[in-house]
Amino acid sequence: MTITITVEKDGYYEVNGMRQEPSVSLYVIPAASKLRRMLKDTKDMIVCPGVYDGLSARIAMELGFKGMYMTGAGTTASRLGMADLGLAQLHDMKTNAEMIANLDPFGAPLIADMDTGYGGPLMVAKSVQQYIQAGVAGFHIEDQISNKRCGHLAGKRVVSLDEYLQRIRAAKLTKDRLHSDIVLIARTDALQQHGYDECILRLKAARDIGADVGLLEGFTTREQMRQAVQDLAPWPLLLNMVENGASPVVTTKEAEEMGFRIMIFSFASIIPAYMGIRAAFLRLKTEGVVGTPEGLGPKKLFEVCGLMESVKLDTEAGGDGFEDGV
Question: 96: part of which helix (H) or strand (E)?
């Protein structure tokens, strides 16, 4: 059978002599499905800078990163002004993740920290449901005790394997019940307390009950990193790179060569923000000016935050608020 399609100048086309009106069907892929496809359909490592607020997320979006990571440490520092000691709870984390994920719901997928799940199985289920509703693409849940701390501090303690698996199982049941593609990342912080072999045992157990990705927090050597990828292959692993933390520094290229599928940089924006703000405040205190570089004023900052998109929307809707420019 021969099918002849002729496209005309006015955009209409003919199929075997019958004139057809052009139509376009668009299917927008949700962020969770996009992240899942990136893991399944490509071999590329997904590099996610750590973001903690709308501005840091906008900068990551401006630079074209394929994913973003909402850091619990950065969220705690920016929203609460406190150290990462388990003080941020579900409301703090979910509302921040929702804001970031919905700056561009169809852009770079957001992976978010979910700490310990904020309680027992029922609370884990509630947390997962709220993250799904917020538009989060993936999250990691860990095995630290409720009185937890940043993964790159000393003195961490973890719950029993059974309690850890309750958290993973509750998360898996919830995402399945809601028919969500959200990516479940099982994290273990057991290395300090119990050693490498216990970490692998826990991650394998989490994998076997349905976790999509594994995360061993706080590697102490490069050899451990390579070994973990081999011991858990072909299950995808995420590497959390915290410079000047517990782990040796490796580049994105090195991590990809080791076989990691996702790499997050938890402190990639919060530490430079501290450095930049402190330097500006110090100059203001000592010299009486901030010293902002020429050309970097309010309008440039607002452009990063979607100024021109807002102007376009208002104008196309018939508004006159920007007739005289901005």
Answer: helix 90-101
CA distance 37 to 313: 31
- Strands annotated E in 1-124: 5-7, 13-15, 18-20, 46-51, 68-70, 110-113
Nearest C-alpha neighbor of 168 from the set 181, 194, 187: 187
DSSP letters spanning 214-255: EEETT--SHHHHHHHHHHHTTS-EEEE--TTSSSPP--HHHH
* Single-letter amino acid, residue 253: K
Each residue's pLDDT expressed in tens, for the chain with a length of 326 residues: 555 555 555 556 666 667 766 665 556 789 999 999 999 999 999 999 999 999 999 999 999 999 999 999 999 999 999 999 999 999 999 999 999 999 999 999 999 999 999 999 999 999 999 999 999 999 999 999 999 999 999 999 999 999 999 999 999 999 999 999 999 999 999 999 999 999 999 999 999 999 999 999 999 999 999 999 999 999 999 999 999 999 999 999 999 999 999 999 999 999 999 999 999 999 999 999 999 999 889 999 899 999 999 999 999 999 998 988 88
Residue with tokens 């076989």: 259
Catalytic residues: 69, 84, 113, 115, 140, 142, 150, 187, 217, 240
